[in-house]
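Below is a filled-in request sheet from our internal design queue. Each sheet records the structural input a requester submitted and the sequence that came back. We keep these sheets so that new team members can see what a complete request looks like end to end.

REQUESTER: design group, bay 2
PRIORITY: normal
MODE: inverse folding
CHAIN LENGTH: 202
BACKBONE (tokenized):
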């Protein structure tokens, strides 16, 4: 249940003549049917590590796998001292605004094994007085269930959906036992997505 204390809102934080920007992002998982997408509001000044968490929560991923951001002018992720990659910048040092530059689209890839690529588009930029501040990221809309973790990427997910939908499929029982719960690929609840975003204070 949403209460007045945790409802996503704009909060009065003091007087200032500065303006702040809020971005409306559309996040679309590539290569799957039915389509899976989310629409979310974040501050333009959000740093990429926190944006990564926002994307995990709004999509429905559990986390725990490697990820990468790819923008028109560079790639960003978490540096690995054992496997240095000079072409990848340290995401902790970059805001979304800086990484975007003049572009309005970028890619976020989650889990290099399953290779879940998400195309993200800046649909809208709002400017508001700095006295107003998002307390939490806001999920505005979406569609489609997030695939299960470790299902095998887009081909594995297609096989999984086929198996659970057909009781006569040779892998139906195994896949049903593996998922351990009812799974509707069309299901999405905006309130449940928002509840996960309450974990993230901006």
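RETURNED SEQUENCE:
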């Amino acid at each position: 249940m949403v209460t007045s204390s945790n409802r996503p809102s704009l909060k009065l934080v003091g007087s200032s003549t500065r303006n702040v920007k809020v971005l409306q992002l559309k996040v679309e998982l590539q290569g799957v049917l039915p389509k899976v997408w989310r629409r979310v509001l974040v501050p333009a000044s959000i740093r990429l590590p926190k944006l990564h968490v926002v994307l995990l929560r709004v999509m429905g991923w559990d986390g725990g796998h490697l990820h990468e951001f790819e923008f028109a002018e560079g790639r960003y992720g978490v540096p690995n001292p054992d496997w240095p990659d000079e072409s990848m910048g340290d995401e902790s040092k970059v805001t979304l605004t800086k990484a975007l530059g003049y572009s309005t689209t970028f890619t976020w890839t989650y889990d290099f094994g399953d290779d879940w690529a998400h195309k993200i588009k800046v649909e809208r930029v709002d400017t508001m007085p700095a006295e107003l501040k998002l307390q939490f990221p806001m999920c505005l809309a979406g569609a489609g269930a997030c695939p299960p973790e470790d299902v095998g990427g887009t081909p594995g997910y297609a096989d999984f959906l086929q198996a659970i939908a057909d009781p006569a499929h040779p892998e139906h029982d195994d896949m049903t036992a593996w998922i351990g719960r009812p799974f509707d690929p069309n299901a999405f609840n905006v309130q449940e997505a928002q509840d996960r975003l309450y974990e993230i204070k901006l």
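SHEET NOTES:
- The chain has five helices and ten strands.
- The domain at 10-144+186-197 is CATH 3.10.290.30 (Structural Genomics Hypothetical 15.5 Kd Protein In mrcA-pckA Intergenic Region; Chain A).
FILED BY: M.R.
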